[in-house]
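EI: anyone free to look at a 353-residue chain?
SC: sure, send it
EI:
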Amino acid sequence: MNSRKAVKKLIPKKLFKKVEPYGHLAESVLMQTKSQFPAKKMVIIGITGTNGKTTTCFMVHKMLVEAGYKTGLMTTVAYGVGNNLKPQIAHMTTVSPGLLLKRIKKMADEGAEYLVLETTSHALAQFRVWGIKYSIAVFTNLTHEHLDYHGTFENYKKAKLRLFKMTNANKDGLQLGIINADDPSSKDFAKPTKNTITYGIKSGDLKAHNIQLTPSQISFNAQVNNDSYDIVCHVPGSFNVYNALATIAVGRALKLSKEQIEQGIASLKAVEGRMTQINEGQKFAVIVDFAHTPDSFEKLFTDIRPVVKGRLISVFGSAGRRDEAKRAIQGEIAGKYSDIVVLTEEDDRDIDG
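SC: here you go
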């Protein structure tokens, strides 16, 4: 049993929830001081939101790597520098401050110029990323999630907003918030940062037009001011239009060329567990997707249902010790679009049944 689990057994649940962030804060201050704030050597791009964080991180990372920049990545799925990525095996997206800073220092020592960091509401609320100065903060969207921890939607939003309050101008003066204008919370995320660029399908500075969807890719034209981008993305799903738009905005902020942005997005062939197609020669399609919120369920099924010629069989579960309120909603959505629904146990986190 690790020390965290031991402490949780000794302290009442409500008290532990209140004091845990300050334990992370103390660890962050200690480790940042000890390692001399290693993130300051890199341009930090933080990406937050309910859905789309991981895919957007991979798109931005791939774009920068293909453009020739040594770039670090930390996400739910993987971490590392350049194309040397290792699987992320921890439960949490943003690991403990000690492990986080150990990895950041290693990346800085390897000469990484950029770090694309998936930043969760838990990490922000618990001070796990204290001391990291983000040059660019990206907001993907905000929907029902993690209310088991935050209590209310407003508290959840406030936690996400901390990322935008943590932006600081780097040596080149870069300090930018990149915001999904189509999300109802977009105006709240625009307030903390001095400079912003918005993106969207319905509205925004950077907008997508002529969207074409196929089972294997998406393509569209993006326009901002007098600039135009012809985008082909090999990670399918209508929701990835937004992720690609956010990536374009990051590329523009970092002064990448039109060709570097277009080729960078096109070069990403897949993100593990995100609309991943499994082909072992079977006579039916198998798709694995991380969708785990009502919003992502709705978008996933509305994309897939129209292209399914036969039966649609969905298999999913709901992790233990996580937001239980969304379970019935997700079940209803799956039932609406599926011919057969198979409910499974998924990472019970020591909960029986």
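EI: The chain has a mean pLDDT of 84.
SC: 👍
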